[in-house]
Amino acid sequence: MEYSPPPLFKQGASARVKVVFFSLVAIMILVIDARLQTLNLAREVIGTTLYPLQVVALMPRNVIDSVAGYFTRLSSLEQQNAVLKQAQVVNALTLQQGQQLLLENTQLRQLLATNARIPVKSVLGEILYDARDAFTRRIIVDRGLHHNISLGQPVIDALGVVGQVTRVFLMTSEVTLLTDKDQAIPVQVVRNGLRSVVYGRGQNATLELRMPSNADIQANDMLVTSGIDGVYPPGLAVARVTQVENKAASTFERIACVPIAGLDRHRHVLILQVDTHIQPRPPDDDIKPKKVNRKVTRDSAEPTAKPKEVTP
Questions:
Q1: 290 in helix, strand or coil?
Q2: Do residues 126 and 141 lie in contact, with contact meaning Cβ atoms separated by under 8 Å?
């Protein structure tokens, strides 16, 4: 007895025949499309129609990529921020050092120019620190006996007089600033040539000029060293007059001055190696002529005549 499937379930061509047929059809369509470009329009229509579906299908992947990229970028930015902060600190230190070196270079150039103008041998020194005594105005420089520094030598910077060497050690020296209460410098007014002496005021970073009440002194007058003391070369800038107070009850004017030199700003100074061994003043007995006490006698006043011999 033969079994035959019902008509509804009858099988057509075999699967192998179908694969071969559709493969040939696909190859033929590919050849026709490659040769004649007849399916471009159909391809564009199908791509445009399916684009929204592609976007919707790719949306979960894009969201995952965006979230992962956000956290990756955040971590990378944090690392870059930390690196940039460290570089900023290093660059800030380098910038400050560069500015300091630039200022020192400018000051050294000015000192070299000053050294060329002054016809006195000088030694370049660096300020190490301020003296420990809080009631004085003194600094310590890195030059001493080993560098032919001696007591009393003046110290200047590129602008004017700084002070005077008051103590000398082997490798360092102590410089008393001109604003110290024990310092006094002979000066001369540039405008009219008047000579006087300026005195330091101690902790107050100003100077005092003592002149008679009728002296021709005005504000902004420039004071320079007069050179009459034999220590400071003449013509060095010392101070500028800032205030003149006239008091009727006093015979002297109260004149306030400010130093020209950068006492608290500069780091390098010039020590002028002038000869501070000044000849001492002769005693008064050597200046006054000595009196010669001559005792006048009658015999000495009237000389005796020698008697003449009479010949017979």
A1: coil
A2: yes
Cα 271 to Cα 145: distance, rounded to the nearest angstrom: 12
**Computed over its alpha carbons, how large is the radius of gyration of the chain?**
52
- Tokens representing residue 106 in the block: 């400018």
Three-state SS at 165:
strand
Query: Pairing mode, if any, of strands 268-272 and 154-156?
Result: antiparallel
Q: Give the span between the Cα atoms of 136 and 86, in whole angstroms.
A: 43
Q: Which of 221, 118, 229 minimizes the C-alpha distance to 164?
A: 229
> pLDDT digit string (tens) for 221-249?
999 998 888 888 888 889 999 988 876 66
Residues facing residue 177 across a β-bridge: 163
* Environment class of 206 (CB within 10 Å of its CB; exposed 0-12, middle 13-18, buried 19+): middle
Residues 6+ apart with CB under 8 A from 243: 219, 255, 256
Whether residue 262 contacts residue 178, with contact meaning beta carbons closer than 8 Å, is answered with no
Give the pLDDT confidence of 167-198 residue by residue, as tens digits: 999 999 999 999 898 889 999 998 888 889 99
pLDDT in tens, 289-302: 545 455 444 444 44
Cα torsion 31, 36, 37, 41: sign = negative
> Does this model's pTM top 0.90?
no
CA distances from 65 to 55, 58, 59, 70, 73 (A): 14, 11, 10, 8, 12
CB 185 within 8 A of CB 307: no
**CA distances for 184 relative to 76, 178, 199, angstroms:** 67, 7, 5
- Residue 115 CB neighbour total at 10 angstroms: 17
Candidates 213, 286, 291; CA nearest to 247 is 213
- Each residue of 112-134: pLDDT tens digit? 766 666 777 888 888 888 887 77
